[in-house]
Write a structure and sequence with these properties.
- It contains 24 helices and 20 strands.
- With about 700 residues, the protein is α/β, with parallel strands linked by helices.
- The chain folds into three domains: about 5-300, Carbon-nitrogen hydrolase (Nitrilase/N-carbamoyl-D-aminoacid amidohydrolase), CATH 3.60.110.10; about 330-590, HUPs (Rossmann fold, 3-Layer(aba) Sandwich), CATH 3.40.50.620; about 590-694.
- Helix 7 (about 210-220) links the parallel strand 10 (about 195-200) and strand 11 (about 225-235).
- Helix 1 runs parallel beside helix 2 and helix 15 crosses helix 16 (about 475-505).
- The longest helix is centred in the C-terminal third of the chain and has 29 residues, at about 475-505.
- It starts with a strand and ends with a helix.
Length: about 700
């Protein structure tokens, strides 16, 4: 009896609209799968065009080029004698669907449209696609001429069906369908489907990987079966990092695990599994069998092909493994680093420039770039020819071999300490020491001449000279003078990014890195168009608390001892005058709240969907041991006033790596007004009424 099936799933670093590159990566994954004996290959969601095409899905060009790539795949010798499952958009009867196209030996077996579309957080699939609402129904799809010429088929099945091979039955899910409460795998499993596949476009969020793994394993724990999950990986053109984690599960246990963070563009997992393990597992679950006897059957597409060999009695099968999860600190070290590498090589720039202040945020950003250099050197050491070729292009040296992260850092990373009369020697020293330890090309400069020139123009025009509060000025004067310093730093950062390499006789320009964390953005504790304004920001979705833990991780794992003094120093903007040569200004005093409190406000506002009144009601219980109701009310009101006054800053926020579900990114994740009535009169009256009652 044929029972051992060999199947493959993969994680591909696809790029939106990069049809040439996407085609080559798909073909490589098929080659690898076949070389390891696989008879079925599963790829990520919308892998032909890349998941992040956004409004390009409206364009007929995207559909046309996707079919052109599909024709190349159908014709390829690599794609023969293996069932290939690829993702692309398909227009059926003038309705656009997110589809799987499953083919074998130049024949399309089934086009399976997505049933449950992702439409929360960063996902907007309902904007571009329509869900297939005809459960267990199949229609005829008329193939375009370009495909007919290859397959010699006029029509193929389109709809909610499963594949029946000579030895088993396969059913497809697409990404969100695994997360839905009524996942298709439930009914498919009851109808005898033994192998479930899921093609995903799932992005990284801190502490999320275990949820995905648990969902896959639980899908087969209650119902039995084999589950394959494919996912995109890398930066495909925007704020998200797709974090791979391709996996294969059998009867509730993981048997193959892919990497979550890697610079490999193509990763293929192959497993040989015993179908009899599924059948015997299901045999003793009486509740499952009773439900199966009443299930409404799926249409079956018969496939004259086997996933097993005729003589497989001696074929070894895979056994369960323990999933290895990364700590949040490791995730911060690896995820944004891989995202930065993708952005750097695909933007064809020569490196990064970072204004390094000697504080936690910019130091954490510097450590992520250093981690990126570690990953590049490791990949080259492991024989990754693509990473080596990309590194040579970035540094403009055909013979270069990156071996030492510090040496690579010197080539691709410029740090710049921009002192003013309000800067302390301590932060200058801390920035210099960290730059020396990571190996960056470090610049020290002073901005006072530029600040005096700008303020001088104002004084010449108005006849008035603003003063800091420490010298008798008003709060308006004090804030304006701080903002001038911050904005001049942004202008200088871009000037040095464009011309620093020119002064060193090196071609190319640098990408400017921002370093505002997610909590500062939420509170609006930043100057609009200051150094938070950059090309990209690898820590913009990470909390201050997590960044502190990450700094400790870097001390222990990268031996960056300069970080110890940075960790122990209170966060400060250093924009107000020093007192006796020492910093008098600190972030938490300026903000009127702690970073720990900010994280709590952020999670309640975004994840718990709490307005001012609901937030007060939750916090009055959460903080009952440390604050009175009146104190809680005051804190909540202060947060919402500051948040709403500064919300306009989110409209120009630098594109940031998405890592937290309470990110205030205005672009697509956190859609809210940016002009508020900041008195919140009705809401605050409700809070006051409750305070009085308490």
């Amino acid at each position: 009896m044929s029972r051992a099936v060999t199947v493959a799933t993969c994680a591909l670093n696809q790029w939106a609209l990069d049809f040439d590159g996407n085609l080559q990566r798909i073909l490589r994954s098929i080659d690898i799968a076949k070389s390891k004996g696989a008879r079925y290959r599963l790829g990520p969601e919308l892998e032909i065009c890349g998941y992040g095409c956004s409004d390009h899905y409206y364009e007929s060009d995207t559909l046309l080029h996707s079919f052109q790539v599909l024709a190349k795949l159908l014709e390829s010798p690599a794609a023969q004698d293996i069932i290939c499952d690829v993702g692309m958009p398909v227009l059926h009867r003038n309705v656009r669907y997110n589809c799987r196209v499953i083919f074998l030996n130049k024949k399309i077996l089934l086009i399976r449209p997505k049933i449950s579309l992702a439409n929360a957080g960063n996902y907007r699939e309902l904007r571009w696609f329509t869900p297939w609402n005809k459960a267990r129904q199949v229609e005829e799809y008329f193939l375009p001429k370009i495909i007919q010429e290859v397959t010699e088929q006029e029509t193929v099945p389109f709809g909610d069906a499963v594949l029946a091979t000579k030895d088993t039955c396969l059913g497809a899910e697409i990404c969100e369908e695994l997360w839905a409460p009524n996942s298709p795998h439930i009914e498919m499993g009851l109808d005898g489907v033994e192998i479930f596949t899921n093609s995903s476009g799932s992005h990284h969020v801190l502490r999320k990987a275990h949820t995905r793994v648990d969902l896959v394993n639980s899908a087969t724990a209650k119902n039995g079966g084999i589950y394959l999950l494919a996912n995109q990986k890398g930066c495909d053109g925007d704020r998200l990092y797709y974090d791979g984690c391709a996996m294969i599960s059998l009867n509730g246990e993981t048997v193959a695990q892919g990497s979550q963070f890697s610079l490999d563009d193509v990763e293929v997992l192959v497993a040989t599994l015993d179908l009899e393990d599924v059948r015997s597992y299901r045999a003793e679950i009486s509740s499952r069998n009773l439900a199966a006897s009443k299930v409404n059957p799926y249409p079956r597409v018969k496939v004259n092909f086997s996933l097993s060999c005729s003589d497989d009695a001696a074929v070894p099968t895979c056994t369960p493994i323990q999933w290895r999860h990364h700590s949040p600190e490791e995730e911060i070290s690896l995820g944004p680093a891989c995202w930065l590498w993708d952005y750097l090589r695909r933007s064809k720039q020569a490196g990064f420039l970072l204004p390094l202040s000697g504080g936690i945020d910019s130091s954490a950003t510097a450590c992520i770039v250093y981690s990126m250099c570690h990953q590049v050197c490791l990949a080259v050491r492991n024989g990754n020819a693509e990473v080596l070729a990309d590194a040579r292009r970035v540094v403009n040296d055909e013979t270069y071999v990156p071996e030492d992260p510090r040496e690579l850092c010197k080539r691709v990373f410029t740090t710049c300490y921009m002192a003013s009369e309000n800067s302390s020697q301590d932060t200058c020293n801390r920035a210099k020491q960290l730059a020396e330890q990571i190996g960056s090309y470090h610049i020290n400069l002073n901005i006072d001449v530029a600040v005096k020139a700008v303020v001088g123009i104002f004084s010449m025009v108005t006849g008035r000279t603003p003063r800091f509060a420490a010298y008798g000025g008003s709060s308006r004067e004090n804030l304006a003078l701080q903002n001038v310093q911050a904005r001049i730093r942004m202008v200088l950062a871009y000037l040095f990014a464009q011309l620093t390499l020119w002064t060193r006789g090196i071609p190319g320009g640098l990408l400017v890195l921002g370093s505002a964390n997610v909590d500062e953005s939420l509170r609006g504790y930043l100057t609009k168009y200051d150094c938070s304004s950059a090309d990209i920001n690898p820590i913009g979705g990470i909390s201050k608390t997590d960044l502190k833990n990450f700094i400790q991780y870097c001390i222990e794992n990268f031996q960056l001892t300069a970080l110890r003094s940075i960790m122990s120093a209170p966060p400060t903007a250093e924009l107000e005058p020093l007192v006796d040569g020492q910093v008098a200004q600190t972030d938490e005093v300026d903000m009127g709240m702690t970073y720990a409190e900010l994280s709590i406000y952020g999670k309640l506002r975004k994840i718990a969907k709490a307005g001012p009144y609901s937030m007060f009601c939750k916090l009055v219980n959460m903080w009952k041991e440390i604050s009175t109701p009146r104190e809680v009310a005051s804190k909540v009101k202060h947060f919402f006033r500051m948040y709403s006054m500064n919300r306009h800053k989110m409209t120009t926020l630098t594109p940031s790596y998405h890592a937290e579900n309470y990110s205030p990114d205005d672009n697509r994740f956190d859609l809210r007004p940016f002009l508020y009535n900041t008195t919140w009169s009705w809401q605050f009256r409700c809070i006051d009424k409750q305070v009085n009652a308490l």
